[in-house]
Amino acid sequence: MSEPDRTGPILLIDAFSLLYRAFFALPPMSTSAGVPTSALYGFSTLMLKLLREQSPRGGAVGMDAPRATFRHDLYAGYKASRPAAPTPLTDQIRRLSDLLDAFGFPVFKAPGFEADDVLATLARVFAERGDAPLIVTGDLDALQCAVGITRIHAVGRGVEGRTYDTAAVVARFSVTPEQLPDWKALAGDPTDEIPGVPGIGAKRASGLVRQFGGVLGILARLDEVKPPSVRAALTAHAAKLLLWRDLALLRGDVTLAEPPRWSAFDAAARVRVRALFEAWEFRSLIARLDALVL
Questions:
Q1: From CA 108, how far away is CA 257, in angstroms rounded?
Q2: Residue 127 forms beta bridges with which residues?
Q3: What tens-digit pLDDT sequence spans the chain (294 residues)?
Q4: Looking at the chain, which runs of residues are DSSP E strands?
Q5: 200 shares its domain with 115
Q6: Exposed site from 119, 152, 180, 233, fewest CB < 10 Å?
Q7: What residue numbers bound the domain in which 219 lies?
Q8: In angstroms, rounded to a whole number, what is the distance separating the alpha carbons of residues 246 and 75?
Q9: With 0-12 CB in 10 A as exposed, 13-18 as middle and 19+ as buried, what is 21?
Q10: Could you tell me if 93 and 15 lie in one domain?
Q11: 283/293 Cα distance (integer angstroms)
């Protein structure tokens, strides 16, 4: 494992999430031959920004495996209404592997698990080694990993984002990162189609989690919940709360086909990426690539 003289984090890239976000954030783009490239361009722009601003020691990638996950087995409604990717994006998904190979970061998948679980596992292993992980994602589910030396860079529109540590998560949600699955079980999550408990919004969910510690504490002390209308709603959905928490909880102990590792972005990687940028006509990115200090 080669290491440049850098003291930055280990980037853990949520590749599909970032590619999707780039596709919907940018206007359509294509090469002179008509090959769609907007998502790949946006993804590449973000990667160059991270390499320039974070000075990472290296990186690794987490991706979804091409099969249903254990969450779909537990709950048929999980992400059930998500539309299929539009054709121009599908074409770019097929070429994403070429871009990841060029950057040189190892890619990890685990059948039956989502990319978020893979990233949570990589983050745990690297943090235990003392390599500060920075998960880069467009999915706020990863915020529950913002503990210890692990931080989350949540990308919004374009390539801008916000970096979260434990304190930033608490400031936003009024619960700790570890309590976010309990919070989501109560408040629900339309993105993942986790219903939550009717009448319990984000603020009340935060208060309940702080008071009782989480779903298990709430269920053990239902008679203490006030007002009665909230107690009645929780009682009516008690059988589902643990399921919804399990759906929201990221698994940090996924068995990977290869031992977790990361690789540095080096001079050879720059040559490979430059060749792709030239082929895809990313002329504006070539100068930024060439200016990176390795």
A1: 8
A2: none
A3: 444 446 799 999 999 999 999 999 999 999 999 999 999 999 999 999 999 999 999 999 999 987 778 787 786 766 656 666 677 898 999 999 999 999 999 999 999 999 999 999 999 999 999 999 999 999 999 999 999 999 999 998 767 899 999 999 999 999 999 999 999 999 999 888 889 999 999 999 999 999 999 999 999 999 999 999 999 999 999 989 999 999 999 999 999 999 999 999 999 999 999 999 999 999 999 999 999 998
A4: 10-14, 58-62, 107-108, 133-137, 151-155, 161-164
A5: no
A6: 233
A7: 173-248
A8: 10
A9: buried
A10: yes
A11: 19
Lookup: tokens for 88: 């121009």
Q: Which two tokens stand for residue 154?
A: 């949540």
pTM of the model: 0.92
Report the CATH number at residue 190.
Answer: 1.10.150.20
Is residue 154 domain-shared with residue 144, that is, in the same domain? yes
Residue type, 138: G
* C-alpha pair distances (Å), 216 with each of 130, 142, 185, 206, 239: 32, 22, 11, 15, 12
Is the Cβ–Cβ distance between 30 and 37 less than 8 Å?
yes
